[in-house]
Amino acid sequence: MSTIARPSFKEQMLAAREEAIIQNVNRLLAEKGFDAMTVDEVAAAVGIAKASLYKHFPSKEDLAAAAMVRVMRRAQQFLAGIDPALPVLERLKAVVRWTLQMQLAGQMPSLPSQNSSLRAVLMASREYIDALMGISDTLGAWIEAGQRDGALDAKLPALAILYTLYARACDPVVEFLKAGGQHGDEQIVELVISTCFNGLSAR
Amino acid sequence: MSTIARPSFKEQMLAAREEAIIQNVNRLLAEKGFDAMTVDEVAAAVGIAKASLYKHFPSKEDLAAAAMVRVMRRAQQFLAGIDPALPVLERLKAVVRWTLQMQLAGQMPSLPSQNSSLRAVLMASREYIDALMGISDTLGAWIEAGQRDGALDAKLPALAILYTLYARACDPVVEFLKAGGQHGDEQIVELVISTCFNGLSAR
DNA sequence: GTCTATAAATAGATAGAC
DNA sequence: GTCTATCTATTTATAGAC
Fold first, then answer.
1. Strand C footprint nucleotides (protein C-beta < 7 Å)
2. Which of A80, A147, A187, B182 gives 20 to 30 Å between its CA and that of B132?
3. Alpha-carbon dihedral of residues A148, A79, A108, A156, nearest 10 degrees?
């Protein structure tokens, strides 16, 4: 029963090391993206040999996938912590705000948007797919409720709204404004949220 | 004087070949991005030896820069062809529509948004900087006019609007909707334009 | 300028001792 | 599991003949 009851000391050490690996991968993915990130860098950042890395994760793609699963799980936790009594619009804005803050903190991993070996690994990962579907289900329900009660534009397909929200997680506007140095982080977040929900046209 | 009057036959052949190279680079940059694109692929696509490529362009970065300059020049031409009598909003929508159509046609080169060797080459390219500044000046003037006459949200910094428009050129929403297969190209274009200018909230 | 052939560097991944 | 050392493939870039 001990194998179920609680992790042994050894298992805890293993989990801690893997968490350290994933954390570094997450940071490097945010800094340089998947293609530019090298396994040597990851090993150096964690402070172990490259061969040891491959004992934990079978490939570079699996490394990135683990980092993505971590982010998705955190997103799910954030969603679960949002007060369901809030208006739909406030809930959705809170989600976007969270992704923008992750990006500004340099912790939002960036993937290649094109076809690559990484996509195959992600699509084959049960954990990733589960998390993605869980998030999409939650957000999708919110979006449809928002369209019913008049908070969201009902003429837009719900999927288009969902993708538009997802896209904020890798919005280059954030890095442009950050590089400009004219605005603080909070200001950047509110600017992007404003253009996302209110658009550029005057109301 | 002939060196100024008109290009010789040889020079025309050279220009034609370089145009063919740039065209293929442009397509490959759109398909796979800078990091995933290889010089071997470019040479194979053009149908010449890799060493010949390096006689035309000194590095992979310069290849990509040439493709970027080409796109920027085309954008400038498009801007110049827009009827100045049109309302500002219509002019800006026309520009965004053009970038979205380029993306859907697989002709919008995608660069790494992070720091890379490519950025240094781009920033050192007089032609690229000139084109970028020309475009930014034109759009910037339109944006400020739009904010004055009440067409655009005057509370947003003009730079934030400019960057938001630029970001549409690499909007992942386009590829998501395209992959979904539920909407045609024209529909995708109008959806993105709607969310860009009107936002997600109901009006 | 174009080619073939090759250099030089770097990448992801593995062997095998401990 | 961790290490050192190495493999294998790929990539950018060049040498040198024509």
1. 1-5, 10-16
2. A187
3. -10
Structure tokens at B55: 């006689």
B68 HSE (CA, 13 A, CB side): 25
On the question of pLDDT at B25 being above 80, the answer is: yes
Task: Measure the CA–CA gap between A32 and B186, rounded to whole angstroms.
Answer: 34
The chain-wide mean pLDDT, for chain A, equals: 96
The pLDDT, as a whole number, for residue B154 is 98
Asked whether residue B58's C-beta has any atom of DNA/RNA strand D within 7 A, the reply is yes
B79-98 in b/e burial notation, b at 16+ Cβ within 10 A? beebeeeeebbebbbbbbbb
Asked whether the predicted pLDDT for residue A4 surpasses 70, the reply is no
Q: B172 and chain A: CB distance < 8 Å anywhere?
A: yes
* Chain B 66-125, CB < 7 Å to strand D: none
Hey, which residues 84-113 in chain A have their CB within 8 Å of chain B? 89, 92, 110, 112-113
CB contact under 8 A, B151 and A202: yes
**Could you give the CA distance from residue A36 to residue A48 in angstroms, rounded to a whole number?**
20
B115 has a pLDDT exceeding 90: no
What are the residue ranges spanned by the domains of chain A? 9-198
Q: What are phi and psi of A147, to 5 degrees?
A: -70, -35
> pTM of the predicted model, to two decimals?
0.96
Q: Looking at domain B9-198, what is its CATH homologous superfamily?
A: Tetracycline Repressor, domain 2 (1.10.357.10)
Outline where DSSP puts E strands in A144-186: none
